[in-house]
Every structure is written in structure tokens, then in C-alpha cells.
Specification:
The chain is α+β, with helices and mostly antiparallel strands. Helices cover 36% and strands 26% of the residues. It has a seven-stranded mixed β-sheet with strand order 1-2-3-4-5-7-6, with helices on both faces. Strand 3 and strand 4 (113-120) form a beta hairpin. The model has no long low-confidence stretch (mean pLDDT 91).
Amino acid sequence: MSAPPKTVLTVTAEEEAAIRAAVRGVDAAALGPGRTVAAPGDAAALAFLLADPAVSGPIYDIPRPITRRRMADWIERSLEEKQAGTGLLLLTLGPAGEVAGYSKITVWPDRSAAELAGAVRADRQGSGRGAAGAGQMFGWIFETLRVRLIGLTAALDNVRSAKLIDASGFQRMGERDAIRPDGTVRRSIYWEMTREAWRAKWGQ
């Protein structure tokens, strides 16, 4: 399960309410063509994407085993989180309407913080599109969801994700234990970045 960032920010009731409202009111289409909030009808296509170990293997917080029923339950919980202003499950659809990638955003409005996990279809990995998409998503989380801090984790052997996160300007802050849905532990590299640092690096 996700854990809030190590850094604790002081947040006013007004800021917390604004973050919750921003999450509830998300328009995924603003991220670009083919982006959508996951809906119950997407369960089978999402299960098909994540059945590939090259996609889901490095990710700790996916419900397992990966079945259509488990994906349907995950989508339903994510829609409840959206209504509460605490999370989003977004999909990237390919030309034929297939699910080509996903992004799971967990939000802690009372800490003005968020965490991002996600993956793209195996044939899109290593193309540079993942890095560009991640950069766009980081900026979108800061500016649209209005949080001031993002925390990220990656498995110790997940070299590809670590390079992407480092290149995006996130600061390594040691390691932490990521708890899988089945209760087992994955030791992970841990990063943080503030909104101010993101704007300074990327000119936003």
C-alpha cells in the first residue's frame, strides 16, 4: 500500500479542501488524447495490459493475482478515492481503444502531497515516450492537483525507473519499505520533489 512522503508539510484547511476539489474535478483529457479516468468497463483491458510481467513485474501496489475481477474492484476503489479527493487511476488508450498504460496517483490532501505509480505497454518502453509522459504527469500533478510535494519509490533493481526519476530532478532520500497488497515488503529507493523545485528546474 502507498505511504505518505517522509517530509511533512503544514497544510491549511483551505489548501486541503482545494486539493480535494481539484482531484474530484479532474479532466483527464487535459493530459492529451487517449487519457481517461478508469471506468468499470476498462477492467478486462487493464487486466490484459498488466498480465504482461514486463509491465507489472516491477510495480508493488497492483492487486494480485491480476484478474478482471480484481481489476474491476481496483477501479471501483479508485473511483471512490476520486470522489473523496484522495486518488486517481488514469489510463492511456491506444489507437484501437486498448489500454496502453496507466497511472495511479495517491493523494494526501492534508499533507499537500502525492505519489505516482504507473507503467506502459512493453513495446512502448525504452522509446523515450515514457520519460516524456512521466515529466508531463509530474507537472500536471503539481499544477492541476495543487499539491506541493511528490514522493516516488522504485525497486532497488529497477534501473530504468531510477534513471527516469533522477533525470526528472527528484532528490534521492534513502530507502523505504513499500508494502504490497498481500502484506509482503519490497525494499525501495525513495525520492521527493517539491513544486518549487520542479518549477525551478523545468521553468514552469
